């Protein structure tokens, strides 16, 4: 028999969770400073989780924690921790019982969807759809330039068209990934762009590029340098549809890596939405490791 016993003392589990998460990010490619900073960004949310011991036949065999958050009028749940202690003798039955408890806890608080972020594959969540991945790659001191493909700063005249297209594409990505419905996705897109680019092209730390080949515009790029210590975040490195299939995708990645190194950062991090297998395959083939995979499923009842 598996029992789930809620805990009231965060000091009994939160510091250990943050240490484990930092170690997982490091193992997946971040430096100590970058991993620590990424963990600190999520600390406040983790402090609101409800944690519970997983108890099997009277023995403590693991820990589970869940939380909920309301954004844009939608409440979603998150399973932040679900692990067994290897020496305690827990089973897959105990893990499933813990997952059921976490999903029920979130549903009772109004969530109709629950997310989990995996730093390594876990078959327990195979029935959760992949909503996105964070990928990361060290760029070295001087990446090899992409033959024929260059990046230049976007002009003020080009920016409004680019931003409108990016907001629309981001909305479509959210909908395709199954994260939000169309109205919620549009609201999130507008809100995120307003937050990220409050001053347009002059927004601090952001580099918005036009990718060119032989004088022709073939795509665009959007990078945030110093997103984490030593890490640039690539919001997009995109080749326009009519120019795809000519090797420009790899070239766009290299332009991003060159810009990352030129800014003094040592790694480039990217996000890819679930369902975008083409981008996932490109990232894998160009050396980007999965830092974290985000999955979710709908809750009923």
UniProtKB/TrEMBL annotation:
**UniProt entry tagged with the keyword Flavoprotein:** no
Residue intervals of the N-acetyltransferase domain: 160-301
**What's a Pfam family this protein contains?**
Acetyltransf_1
Q: Does the keyword Transferase apply?
A: yes
EC number in record: 2.3.-.-
**Annotated keywords:** Acyltransferase, Transferase
Picking any one GO molecular function of the record gives: acyltransferase activity
First-level EC class: transferase
- Protein name in UniProt: GNAT family N-acetyltransferase
- The species this protein belongs to is Kitasatospora paranensis
């Amino acid at each position: 028999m598996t029992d789930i016993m809620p805990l009231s003392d965060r000091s009994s589990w939160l510091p250990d969770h943050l240490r484990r998460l930092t170690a997982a990010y490091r193992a997946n490619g971040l430096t100590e400073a970058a991993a620590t900073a990424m963990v600190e960004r999520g600390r406040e949310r983790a402090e609101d989780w409800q944690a519970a011991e997983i108890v099997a036949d009277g023995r403590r065999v693991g820990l589970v924690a869940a939380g909920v958050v309301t954004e844009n009028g939608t409440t979603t749940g998150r399973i932040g921790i679900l692990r067994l202690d290897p020496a305690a003798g827990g089973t897959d039955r105990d893990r499933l019982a813990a997952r059921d408890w976490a999903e029920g806890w979130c549903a009772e608080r109004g969530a109709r969807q629950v997310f989990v972020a995996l730093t390594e594959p876990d078959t327990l969540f195979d029935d959760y759809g992949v909503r996105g991945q964070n990928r990361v790659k060290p760029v070295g001191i001087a990446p090899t330039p992409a033959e024929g493909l260059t990046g230049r700063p976007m002009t003020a005249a080009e920016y409004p068209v680019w931003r409108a297209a990016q907001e629309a594409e981001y909305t479509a990505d959210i909908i395709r990934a199954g994260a939000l419905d169309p109205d919620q996705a549009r609201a999130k897109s507008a809100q995120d762009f307003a937050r990220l680019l409050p001053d347009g092209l002059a927004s601090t730390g952001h580099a918005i590029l036009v990718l060119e080949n032989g004088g022709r515009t073939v795509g665009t790029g959007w990078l945030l340098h110093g997103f984490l210590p030593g890490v640039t975040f690539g919001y997009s490195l995109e080749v326009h549809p009519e120019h795809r299939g000519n090797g420009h995708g790899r070239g766009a990645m290299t332009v991003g890596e060159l810009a990352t190194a030129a800014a003094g950062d040592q790694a480039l991090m990217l996000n890819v939405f679930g369902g975008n297998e083409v981008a996932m395959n490109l990232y894998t083939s160009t050396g980007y490791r999965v830092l974290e995979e985000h999955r979710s499923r709908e809750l009923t009842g």
